[in-house]
Structures are given as structure tokens and as C-alpha cells.
Design a protein that fits this description.
By secondary structure, this protein is α/β, with parallel strands linked by helices. It is built from 5 helices and 7 strands; from the N terminus they run H-E-H-E-H-E-H-E-H-E-E-E.
């Protein structure tokens, strides 16, 4: 696993040796950033990486110039690797790590983010609630994106707060890009 573009390009990242964390593959990570490339001004972007694991997606955003990234992870084992990866790239004060539960973090944050990444465990029962919870809380900026990696056959129930603007599938993995629902002109 490595950083695929930007100022940290080529830096190797480490992850939990067992299968308890499922880091985004370079192919999926590349696809995510290809979709966002022309849509996000990275130098102004505030990024939130939920269920961060090794932090590879948030680190990729930092590498491409994101202003800052907050990583939220509750596994102590994954947290060790996440902190090591941030240290390896030398992100310093641009990266903040929060140890704890994602739901508790979402409930407590008052910040709006340009991009919110969520790569929850595929078996997470609350997967269906993630877009509703995040958009209801108002943490995605008006022109921002929520990007969720999820099982390919999973579909989110429609909601008046958000819409899926792009969806990409790679084998058993899908990535959905959500934005605030826009009124018809």
C-alpha cells in the first residue's frame, strides 16, 4: 500500500497484518481521487476520514494538498498503524487523530468538511444510516462530498437530504459519492 499521487507520492504505508482492517486498494483510491480531482479545490479542503484504519485515503487527500484531515478510528491496533503512517509522511499539524467511536464524533463535531470519507466495516448494521446521519448533522459543506466505500450490491435508501451523484463499482467494492440534494431549477 502506498500514496499514489501528490507530495507524498510513492511513500509506503503500513496496515494491520490481519484482515481486521480493509484498506482501500490503490485502484479504488485512484478512482476516488479521479472523480474528485476536478470537483475539489484541495488547497482549501477540510477532510474527515471516518473508520480511518491505516489512514490511506485521508493521507492521499493530504498528499494532494488538503488543508487538513481529521482521522477517526476506534481500533487501538489500527490506531498504531495510522499514527505511524502520519509520522512517516511528516504531515504534522495538518493531520489530527481522534481515538473513538465514529457516531460519538459525528454527534459532537461542529465543523463542516469539504470531503467526508467513510470506509466502515462491510458488516456494520448502521451502514444504511451513515448518509442520513452525516447530512442531518450538517457536517458536509454545501458543495462538499460524502464518499462511502461499501459492498457492491448494497443500495442506500433514498432521502430528501442527499443524492448519489456518482457511483463506481470495482469487483465486490462500490464507492458512492453523495452531495446535498439540489432543488430542481
Amino acid at each position: 500500500m502506498r500514496v499514489i499521487a501528490g507530495i507524498y507520492k510513492g511513500r509506503k504505508l503500513v496496515t494491520v497484518p490481519d484482515n481486521s482492517v480493509r484498506p482501500a486498494t490503490d485502484r479504488v483510491k485512484g478512482a476516488i481521487f479521479n472523480v474528485l480531482q476536478s470537483r475539489i479545490n484541495w488547497t482549501q479542503a477540510r477532510v474527515l476520514d471516518l473508520y480511518a484504519g491505516s489512514g490511506s485515503v485521508g493521507i492521499e487527500a493530504l498528499s494532494r494538498g488538503a488543508r487538513n484531515c481529521i482521522f477517526v478510528e476506534k481500533s487501538r491496533t489500527a490506531l498504531t498503524f495510522l499514527k505511524k503512517n502520519i509520522e512517516t509522511i511528516g504531515a504534522g499539524s495538518d493531520a489530527n487523530v481522534v481515538y473513538g467511536d465514529v457516531d460519538a464524533f459525528i454527534a459532537s463535531t461542529r465543523t463542516q468538511y469539504t470531503v467526508v470519507f467513510a470506509d466502515p466495516p462491510y458488516a456494520l448494521e448502521a451502514l444504511k444510516d451513515i448518509p442520513d446521519t452525516i447530512f442531518a448533522k450538517g457536517i458536509v459543506a454545501d458543495d462538499g462530498y460524502l464518499v462511502i466505500e461499501h459492498p457492491a450490491r448494497y443500495e442506500f435508501a433514498k432521502n430528501g437530504l442527499w443524492e448519489v451523484v456518482v457511483e463506481k463499482t470495482y469487483g465486490n467494492t462500490a464507492v458512492s459519492f453523495f452531495q446535498h440534494r439540489r432543488s430542481a431549477p
